[in-house]
Structures are given as structure tokens and as C-alpha cells.
Design goal:
Structural class: alpha/beta
Keywords: DNA-binding, Transcription, Transcription regulation
Organism: Limimaricola cinnabarinus
Radius of gyration: 31 Å
Strand content: 15-25%
CATH superfamily of the largest domain: Periplasmic binding protein-like II
Pfam families: HTH_1 (PF00126), LysR_substrate (PF03466)
Protein name: LysR family transcriptional regulator
CATH class of the largest domain: Alpha Beta
Low-confidence stretches: none
GO cellular component, one term: cytosol
Number of helices: 11
Number of domains: 3
Order of helices and strands: HHHHEHHEHEEHEHEHEEEH
């Protein structure tokens, strides 16, 4: 017969309580059941663990066995508590793969709310371009992805919001001073800085501007720093530009209806870890009205 955790728990209770009756009361069992469990345990060990039938004093072997049994019972208790915590989303990990603009403009209030309700859950968030987000999901290195991507086989996709593209420049730029919507002709001959989101703009008139761009900067933070410093101008979706940044101006496009569509992508919820499911619920609640605000 294999040693069971109940045998160890019973043995430890008898040692700690000093009698069969007290141990039985603690365990919610009858004294005869506790006695039978101890007998089975000693038979498996092959030697007596108590010096007397009253079970009040351990043999030298019993002392050594008790030390090991106590550690195993405590470890088992911690394991059960951890498993229960994972199942209730009290512990665990959420792996996010998102585009940089999502990381800076969308997720801070979501994460703040989630951390308030799930303080022991670890969040692993990595920002990258949309193609990399898709690769991370397909390789199962991310639980949740937020990007402008399609849903591959076996994944669920939900539109979070869409926002229009516009010209981003320094406030002192002539286009910002003019204050009007910007046409494609206004960008001809300008120092245009390309970025990864430009691929979403399919207007034929934009293609020559993109081809002539002297710079390409995929990282949003670096891109905005260059624009802020007057190095050039770029095109970005509205939510990719901080509203309170006085060093940047966002100007609408006059001749284009180009928009960025941002999707929430994950495996079917029933396959996600509890912590990831809980994060999705918070994310959807916090972003429920985003579609109506741009």
C-alpha cells in the first residue's frame, strides 16, 4: 500500500495532540478510524513509530519520520492553496503582447484596475509590432494580444475600437499653425518619418510619400520624440498620440478616411488560464465605450 497524504496528516495530528481522541476530534474522524490509519502507516514503514499504545511518545525512528511527515503535510497544504488560488484567479500570470500605442494609451487604467482586484497575479506585458503580436499568440507565448491583426485558426477576435489616422507634427510646424485638415499634397517634399502603422493606409496618393520617406522608425516612443524635436512629421492613429502632450499636434486628414482597427485576440476563453480570463473581463469593461469616443 502506498503512503497517502491522509496517513501523514493523521500521524502528525496524533503526535501534535498527544492522544488518539484529541487527534480524531481535530481531524473530524472517529478514534478507531485514526487508529486504523496509524496501523496501516506503521505496517508500511515496517517498524513501530510510538513507544506505547497510548501514542504519547515517539520512537527514535518516529521522531525522524515525524519531521519528514510534517514538512510534507505543510508542503501539500501550500500546494492546495496555490492551486485553489490559481483557479480563482487570485494568483498566476497574464502574458500580454500588444502594440506600443496600446501599452501607453489603453492599458494603464486597465492594469491599475486589475491589480487592485488581483494583486498577486503577475503581468508580463511586451510591446511589439502587430506582426510580432500575431507570432507570439501562435507560438503560445502570449495569452492575449491587442493589435491590428487577423485571427488565426483556433483564436477568437473582437474589435476594441477604430480610430482615424492623422498627421502628427510639432506645434510650431507650418501645418499646425495653419490649423486646417491636411491633404496629401501638403506632405509632398516634407521630411516624412515612416512607421509600421503606415502599412494600414491604402490610399494610392499616400504611396509616393511613403516611398520617399528618408527615415523609418518602428518604435512609437522614439518616433514621437523625433517629431517632438522637429526632425520630421508622421502619420499615426489618433489614440497613438497622447492627448496631453503639448509638444505634439495631431491634424486630421482632408482626403482620406483611413482608420486603424484594433482587435483583441486570444484563444477561446475556456482554454485560457483563470487569471487571463479575469484580465479579459476587466479589459472589456474598461474599454467598453472606446468605440464611441473617437
Amino acid at each position: 500500500m502506498a503512503i497517502k497524504i491522509e496517513m501523514l496528516r493523521c500521524f502528525c495530528a496524533v503526535v501534535q495532540q498527544g492522544s488518539l481522541n484529541e487527534a480524531a476530534s481535530q481531524l473530524g474522524r472517529t478514534p478507531s478510524a485514526v487508529s486504523m490509519m496509524l496501523k496501516q502507516f506503521e505496517e508500511h514503514v515496517g517498524a513501530a513509530l510510538f513507544e506505547t499504545a497510548r501514542k504519547s511518545r515517539l520512537t527514535p525512528l518516529g521522531e525522524m519520520v515525524y519531521g519528514e511527515a510534517r514538512r510534507e503535510v505543510e508542503h501539500f497544504g501550500r500546494t492546495v492553496a496555490a492551486i485553489e488560488g490559481l483557479s480563482r484567479a487570485e494568483e498566476g500570470q497574464v502574458r500580454l503582447a500588444v502594440t506600443p500605442s496600446v501599452a501607453t494609451a489603453i492599458l494603464p487604467p486597465v492594469i491599475r484596475r486589475f491589480r487592485r482586484d488581483h494583486p498577486k497575479v503577475r503581468i508580463d506585458m511586451r510591446d511589439m509590432d502587430s506582426a510580432s503580436v500575431q507570432r507570439e499568440l501562435e507560438a503560445e507565448r502570449a495569452d492575449i494580444g491587442i493589435a491590428s491583426i487577423a485571427a488565426g485558426a483556433g483564436f477568437e477576435r473582437k474589435l476594441l475600437f477604430s480610430d482615424p489616422f492623422g498627421v502628427v507634427c510639432a506645434p510650431g510646424d507650418v501645418l499646425a499653425s495653419r490649423g486646417d485638415a491636411v491633404g496629401w499634397r501638403d506632405l509632398a517634399g516634407r521630411d516624412f518619418i515612416a512607421n509600421g502603422l503606415c502599412r494600414l493606409i491604402e490610399d494610392p496618393a499616400f504611396a509616393p510619400i511613403l516611398d520617399a520617406a528618408p527615415m523609418s522608425v518602428p518604435n512609437t516612443a522614439s518616433l514621437l520624440a523625433l517629431v517632438r524635436g522637429g526632425v520630421g512629421l508622421t502619420l499615426l492613429p489618433r489614440r497613438a498620440v497622447p492627448l496631453d502632450d503639448e509638444g505634439l499636434a495631431f491634424l486630421p486628414l482632408a482626403e482620406s478616411e483611413a482608420r486603424r482597427h484594433l482587435y483583441l485576440v486570444s484563444q477561446p476563453r475556456r482554454l485560457l488560464p483563470p487569471a487571463a480570463r479575469a484580465f479579459l473581463r476587466v479589459l472589456e469593461k474598461e474599454t467598453a465605450d472606446l468605440r464611441d469616443t473617437v
